[in-house]
Amino acid sequence: MPVTQEDLSALKERVDLVALIESRGVKLKRRGKSFVGLCPFHEEKNPSFTVNPEEKLWHCFGCDKGGDSITFLELKEGLSFSDAADRLREHLHPTAPANPEPKPEFMPEDQPRQRRGFNPLQLLERVVEVYHQAFLTDRRGLEYLKKRGITSRELLQAFKVGFSDGSFLKMLPDRGEILESLKELGIISSSGKEHFSSCVIFPLCDSGGHVVNLYGRKIDSRSSVRHLYLPGPLKGVFNAQAAKGSREVILVEGILDCVSLCQAGFQNAIPLYGVQGLTEDHLALFSSCGVKRIYLALDNDQAGKEATEKLADRLSSQGLECFSITWPEGAKDANEFFLQHGPAEFKALLKEAVPVGKPPKAASEDNESFSLGALSLRLKPIFASGGKLRVNLRVSSNGKMHLDTIDLYSSRARKSFFKEVEKKFLLSGEAAEGLMKQVIERTEALVAKGESKEEKEGALPSLMTDEEKEEALAFLQNPRLTDEILSDLEALGYVGEDSAKLLAYFIGVSRKLGEPLSGVILSSSGAGKSCLAEKIEELTPPEEVILYSRLSPQALGYMEKDALKRKLLIIEERVGSEAADYSIRTLQSRRKITQGVVIKDPGSGRMFTRTYVVEGPIAYLETTTRASLNHENATRCFEIYLDETSEQTERIHRAQREQRTLAGLLRDDKSEKIRRKHHNAQRLLAELLVIIPYAPLLTFPPAWLRTRRDNARFLCLIEVIAFLHQHQREKKSARDAGGEEFSYIEATIEDYRLAYQLAAEILGSTLDELPRAARELLEEVQKFVLEEAEKSGQEPSAVTFTRRTIRERLLWPDYKIKEGFKILQDLEYLEIVASSFGAKSLYRLSDAPSAKGRILPGLMTPEGLAKEMKIPRRG
Questions:
Q1: Where are the domains of the chain?
Q2: Among 290, 298, 293, 287, which residue's Cα sits nearest to residue 253?
Q3: Averaged confidence pLDDT in the chain
Q4: The pTM is what?
């Protein structure tokens, strides 16, 4: 087909030149805005081949060859101009990698290490990344999977699929310790060869999302060994996230079967390690995620049929309902099925699945026996008050037995039980946690049998005792409720920071409202931001809070529909959520994520769009060490700056010292009771509308465009304060336009007073053109200048000073002073009087010192509101 100049220009513009050249065997490294490597057109030891990705041009300074993508293909593959243009079109095939990043060094010099060797989890993560980059640039892995009907690039990238293209050993740095660590993991054999040579590679993760194993599938069907794992016990589960939030799981024999199902839209598929490959990790996953039904879709051969019966018996003994799927004639497994059929036909197979396995055992009225893997358990609850759930528990296996009486709601008791069970029965920590999850759920179910099943307004969870209900209600009805919250947080070890603690607590509670709040806790490293987020997590009912250390770009978009609804989402450190920024902002603004993903039907070859919806709303909290935020994030969040003064440091020191005393030890014993009280209290908060009757009287500064969002956040803060005090407010009712009756409470002026106290200074700092630290530095400089001017009788504008003068006065670290001075100088608060190379710089204030505070101007004060409402002055 003839190509016009316009078409050719557009084609060359769309091609990633770096990816094209790397796909032809040239290894490139980034150098500034360009990439360099060894020239493929002449022999050289030092790289002189340069690629400019912005201008879409390459040039070799050694042989003086150069040109664009067409020229490169003409020279590299001996093609004519038209053939090179056709080959360039092939590079834009849908399964070709889009904008692959250049392959980085295997392990950067600053990669964290353990005291001896490298952290195995970090090493495996790095190996996965290297193999994934190879998969994106070497078409052999893609072509192999294409023959198996697996073509969804989005899905393969989400699973971080890799390929061993033979370059792994060559890219390893000359560091024997890395090689030895890779040999210990089994990535490199004792003879120095790649274990997964010429394999398509799939990472397997534990329940925390960490890579703990790899599966390799040889692309050469003539290989004697076609399936490979890392040496040692089989661990990890592929597509483990499928069990989270799903009550049904489709179990298949192999990973390619699982990927085929996922591509067809059946995301709840999980593979075994072959017909005998059900592990304790699988069972622990099903238990911890609350899976209730299993569809067994094993291979359509004798081994698969026999394994189905055995697996069904084993799974049903765990209380799981099992069904068997029968493949039609001509399809051995899921992978082969989807080469010939589509999603509709598989849905029909699901409907025709037949029950298999033993019927689940019915529990007796006061005790229950069940199995978990090779373990047999018997439990009998002991009903006690005081927020405890004690149980008699017997665990046995192969002649060994462990008897214990433990409080399931005591963290200390559970840890002690873990240690005994892990040691006696040689269980992994994950398996022991799965066992404990089963014990807790079954014990709670037994207790629930003795309680009323009628739902009442404000009914408590079945395991809340009358005593606990009274305690939680007394807490919510306390006229000094906010003081008790602060006191409890201090008892948990977080001293000072009253405003920050209250605002963070209110953000957590706001998850129950229609428009929840978000916050970012900002401070220098070590100031206590992570500790504050941790305390808010501790006081939130565990079923209503989700904490992540890191989020991948699409992690939130593929969660179960209601997995995030009315939850508090906490990210431990801002750097861990940057990749998912867009998803988080969408949840904050639109309160749901809707995304369309293109999937190919392997049977018909037709492309179709699958829609994924994850519903909010969410309350959101994250921490960061950065001095300022991205504007898009800042307008959606309260910026909570922590106190970094020496006075706060002294408070922390006193608390740390007290922690080592008897009083501190006794205080620790009360921590669990405090957490339990807050959990129960927050569970007692009914979903009520909050009306702000005085909202039309309020004023908010309109000078900044972003206040359109800030005003809404301020109103929501008033709502959440009133909402938390709902047991101290009169409940009213009204009818909507459709005649439906609804209940609501009204916010009081006291709610406004607290909201004003918390938000006025925070929003003032947010809207200030200076970051918080720079504003504090400016205020200190102004104080110094006024003092010096008074001493010397000079005008303030004549007083000069150096950075060292201010550093020694404030005892701030040098980097913080330098950073602050630069900001103040750029924004013309400071000016340099004298400066020369190698000499001190003298500064002075650009303007006369002002007494400007950080309280938001234009925000109505509580006194002003009281006057507008004609409420008599207090006192």
A1: 1-92, 116-236, 240-356, 368-449, 476-683, 689-767, 772-845
A2: 298
A3: 80
A4: 0.47
